[in-house]
Amino acid sequence: MATHTYTYKQFSCFNKTFTNTEPGPPSDVLHAFHSFSSAGATSMSADNLLGFLTDHQREPQCTSDDSLRIIQSLKGDHKTDDGLTLDDFFHFLLRDDLNAPIKSEVHHDMNAPLSHYFIFTGHNSYLIGNQLTSDCSDVPIIDALVRGVRVIELDLWPNSTKDDVEVFHGRCKLIPTSILTLTTPVSLRQCLWSIREHAFVTSKYPVIITFEDHLTPDLQAVVAEMVTEIFGELLYYPETDLLSEFPSPESLKGRILISTKPPIEYLDSKSCDEEDKKPKSTDKGSQSPDVTNKVETDDKDVEDLNESDEKSYKESAPKYKRLITIHAGKSKGDFQEDLKVAGKVKRLSLSESKLEKASESFAPDIVRFTQKNILRVYPKGTRITSSNYKPHIAWTHGAQMVAFNMQGHGKSLWFMQGMFKANGGCGYVKKPDFLVEKGPNNEVFDPKRTLPVNKTLKVKVYLGTGWSSDFSLTDFDSHSPPDFYVKIDIAGVPADRAKKKTKTIKNNWFPVWEEEFEFPLSVPDLALLRIQVKEENRTEKDDFAGQTCLPVTELKSGFRSVPLYDEKGEKYKSVKLLMRFQFK
């Protein structure tokens, strides 16, 4: 166990030296090492290590090749016969590349319809900063795709000469609708090329582009040509006009989809009489495309079109509309009508505040809608600093696209990043069965109902390391080594939410806590374990020292190395915790 000395200046008058010793294996680790090693042996053989992996770590899929690979990683190719000493074994447990806390591969069933998945979704994906004055760029789009985001939102507007398309945030609800924001535009062509080049760097599963369309018919035709030209064979669109069921992520691997409102079809609407425009009571919820567009469109109404518009729509609508896989629209306030499950699937968008209001009266209806259709939830207009909302109310109601501002940071975004660490970080997380299946009497999951405890998660925090490597001597305290403590929270359904905290370890870069906590969980499938390390500060706000958020259902049992991340979600090079997870 290495010993380190640190010298700090006290009151600008004299120096004080602190001695910190790197911790050795905790007693639980010692016990496990001796329990799985051969009697009287001072090392753990490959067979012994395999027994530890399968029995203690609950990884029955491990083989002798896996245990040999671990020993080779720690000791080199030529020393595998020596096995692992206690120090080697402890070092192995601290290696998050060899002993990660969650599964790293895609392991969910990827053959269900898109509506059966939570999908990693961005909001105003082109903005670098706030919603009013920040620059627009393809850089945040690239960053989002590299992080695994699968839904990119682009706001489409005519350029100043009305002959091309730009991407920028056009209006803010805090100011009159006639006043535009001050965000600087980026060309749509540049955004599309960047999406093509980076779409599948992190995940091979489909990228969905949602267009907020503020274009004339002629420019919609320009977009159709641009999308087809740039994406080529990567672009997926269905053979039929409207789908009765969405395709699966597996079938769409390596493909790019478009989701937006379909263009107004003027001629169809003029040729239909008023009765034809209404839903047919005998037709299982289907309705005229013209009525759908009339309800969903934020632009001009059909009746407002002049003769030139009629011709433009007649020529451009088919080109644009055929590229749309996921037909979309916004709620107009009649939630019961919005949530009717028709024969054809669609996407509905609600602001976080509208969802919260709707969930008070229509929770089961929302869940039923999301079993076949897609619900997108987006931040309310007052979040001009690009802050985010709590995502769990949307997830518990089955919302697939919980759109977040990815350029910010904070607890809500940590939850989002934590959720999509699941399933190998591919950007698609299979929803729990209770959100996609109906009960024997056609009933659906009720998010308001309190359920009995399903399982209990036991979390033990042993120690932390790496801060002395990743931080400077005075990053936390200018007069002494840091005073670290750990906060452990459960985010999920209301009954499962809980907060715990360890004691504070004073003046030590290598804190040892050895504290255990229990979390009873009624809906573990929607629970996230948030871990945050802070440095106690008596005179000011406690300093941030690392965080991570992990989906409970993905946690691996046993001793685990838990790497920590900074406030923006970037992984620290060295900072990690040694923890143990158990379920009962």
From TrEMBL:
Swiss-Prot/TrEMBL cofactor(s): Ca(2+)
Alphabetical list of SMART domains matching this protein: C2 (SM00239), PLCXc (SM00148), PLCYc (SM00149)
Basic and acidic residues: bias regions: 267-283
Domain PI-PLC Y-box: 349-435
Stretches for region Disordered: 267-314
Pfam families the UniProt entry points to: C2, EF-hand_like, PI-PLC-X, PI-PLC-Y
UniProt topology in membrane: Peripheral membrane protein
PANTHER family linked to this entry: PHOSPHOINOSITIDE PHOSPHOLIPASE C 6, PHOSPHOINOSITIDE-SPECIFIC PHOSPHOLIPASE C FAMILY PROTEIN
Protein name per UniProt: Phosphoinositide phospholipase C
